[in-house]
Amino acid sequence: MSAIYIGVMTGTSMDGLDLVAASFDPLKIHATLTLKFEEDLRDQLMALSLPDDNEIDRMAVAHVALGKMIGNGVNQLIEDNQLDRSQIRAIGSHGQTIRHRPESGFSLQIGDAHIITELTNLPVVYDFRSRDLAANGQGAPLVPAFHQVLFQHHSIHRVILNLGGIANVTMLPAGQPEQIFGFDTGPANILMDAWCDRYTGQPYDENGNWAAYGHPIRSLLDRLQAHDYFSKEPPKSTGREDFNIDWLHDQLADWRNDLDYDELEDQPENVQATLMKLTTRAIKKAIYRSKEAMPTGEIYVCGGGAFNGTLLEQLRWRLRKHNWSVQTTEALGLAPIWVEATAFAWLAMRFCEGQAGNLPAVTGANGLRVLGSMTHI
Ligand SMILES: Nc1ncnc2c1ncn2[C@@H]1O[C@H](COP(=O)(O)OP(=O)(O)O)[C@@H](O)[C@H]1O
Ligand SMILES: [Mg+2]
Q: Domain 144-332 - what CATH class?
């Protein structure tokens, strides 16, 4: 029987921990689990994503707490599903990103791998991004290599669109593995979640229903789109340090001082609709950027944003002229919420086999690199 790898992911949304037990060639999902963060830990992690006082101490405390949560989560996954521990080769633990600054050469994930090993008696592959950064890459996105193996088609152009806190695209030109390309397009849910929480008390906008009720505000959209990130050329990657609620509030304050400001437009649901348009516009631009090589094809959405029917409908509408179809990865046999965690199980497998996990064309690294470090039992 092929070895099982357990992938553990917690993305920029900080909505929780996703765990997947998978084996590869062919892909088989043996078990899945999502664990919500305790409010206290989530607050700690959220606070660590922006500079503040006494960071070293607070970071170390969260590092330990998250390591325990992951270790206990892996044990729960194994026990609930009666997995055979001897068949599990390694855990691939991404950890929580609390600072992503590729321009300074680092990206910091926490969640102590040594604690995970102590709790599970399994080796843990962790710190997947540092080696790519050391080779002058962005250290992100890392999922495209897995998307390629699983989803590239010999005659149909495909795009895998991951809608987590941040949106990233993987462009898979038909039958051309050497031409694969991808990058973070900008925010997906990060700003919409924060805005929704503030005005409705809900952690996210279910199905995008609230955004659908509003109308995008042109002058605000123009202002948000002026963020430097959107005009940067790939390779590029982003996170909470570029797009966060404080930045949004600053932009809103400036917009309200603008000559274009129209008080009647200033409704929270219109701001939400504007944030959704900010997301879909950047995605459209990313897809049309490759229009010579990929004039049309299929888009498969993964990540929690795959459940935002309004966003998917708007994307379909924006890309209708070139007949891009928009579905979720469910249509390809992998449920959208498990794609990222499965990718980290796959990256753990690559590490154990001594194989590269990055794609230099995507991250900008000097070459292919084996990603991660490993604890031993
Ligand atoms: N039913 C839904 N309707 C709209 N948005 C959803 C729904 N379910 C999940 N989401 C969005 O997906 C996000 C989580 O996606 P996820 O892929 O886990 O992101 P990350 O990788 O950043 O953790 C949530 O924060 C929320 O914005
Ligand atoms: Mg998540």
A: alpha beta
The string of pLDDT tens digits covering residues 236-273 is 999 999 999 999 999 999 999 998 899 999 999 999 99
Q: Longest Cα pair distance anywhere in the chain, in angstroms? A: 67
- Nearest Cα neighbor of 46 from 115, 96, 105, 8 is 96
Each domain of the chain, given as residue ranges in start order, spans: 4-138+366-374, 144-332
Q: Give the residue, out of 8, 10, 12, 13, with the most ligand 1 atoms within 8 A of its beta carbon, to mutate for a pocket test.
A: 13
Backbone angles phi and psi of 365, in degrees to 5? -70, 160
Mutate to test the pocket of ligand 1, among 96, 200, 308, 339 (most ligand atoms within 8 A of CB): 308
What's the pLDDT tens digit per position in 140-164?
A: 999 999 999 999 999 999 999 999 9
Q: Output the CATH code of domain 4-138+366-374.
A: 3.30.420.40
Residue 164 CB–ligand 1 contact under 6 Å: yes
